[in-house]
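ok so for the tutorial part 2 we go from a plain amino acid sequence to predicted structure tokens. step 1 is just haveing the sequence, like this:
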Amino acid sequence: MSIQFSPVIAAQNRGTGSAFSVKALDLAGAGDSASPVIVLDDFRVRGRPFPPHPHAGFAAVTYVFEDSPGGLRSRDSLGNDVVTGPGGIVWTQTGSGLIHEELPADSNLELHGLQIFVNLSSKNRLAAPQMLRLEAHQVPDWRSEHGDRVRVLVGSFRGVSSALVPLEPFHLLDVEMRREISFEIQNAYNAIVYVVHGSVRVLADGRRQALSGGNAVALSGSGGPVSLAALHPTHLFILSGPLIDEPLVVQGSFMMNTRAQIDAAINRFESGKMGRLSPFSNESSD
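step 2 — the prediction. this is what the tokens look like for a chain of 286 residues:
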């Protein structure tokens, strides 16, 4: 078994002023090593910068950082309208398509979150849309005697498993490190290690890579053990899922295998088959 490292991926600061800012990880440089993750953004938002919008063909995931001043309000054309507090996660399987909107639950408080778009394989690309979610108290964790903590948002870690089970296998771990941890990449899986703050040394297959805050690395190959050693107290995320080796066509917020599927998704949206979601009136979202 062997593991290869991508070049270090540095987050790029983007945004639209004080209402929205993001540390965006450009995963294109990692090639197939980042699959099935398509988008990975560490964002901060206030107010309502984005109106309701359609999605189809992938999973749209929002994790609310534990230190976020405010929570997340998620509403969609399936009829869901929920608030998820700091430490919670919303996993929207967009499948054949829906319209949704996500915004700070309290317009006076900043929302700090991680936005992830996870690809779906062709067999599930057009599955029925569904929202899955966990509040902070529903997220299990693993702790070491040295103060390391792993919150298992999706998937499993050392015998600890999340109750959030998406359509396709995936692991999403929120890790606070003081010393070291290790995890296994399965055969035909990829993994991404994203450091929020601090610094860590990634060791796998005789290679090592130091990562500091705002940087990530993608790991691919035939699988094997990966060790993470904290050089300073560190907060990081581990994302891992099976490589999806299929054509991918992206147009706006639609992700499909073919151009014809994109055209069909646009038609479903324009004809109202993804449902309706009216913009907010002047009511408060608090």
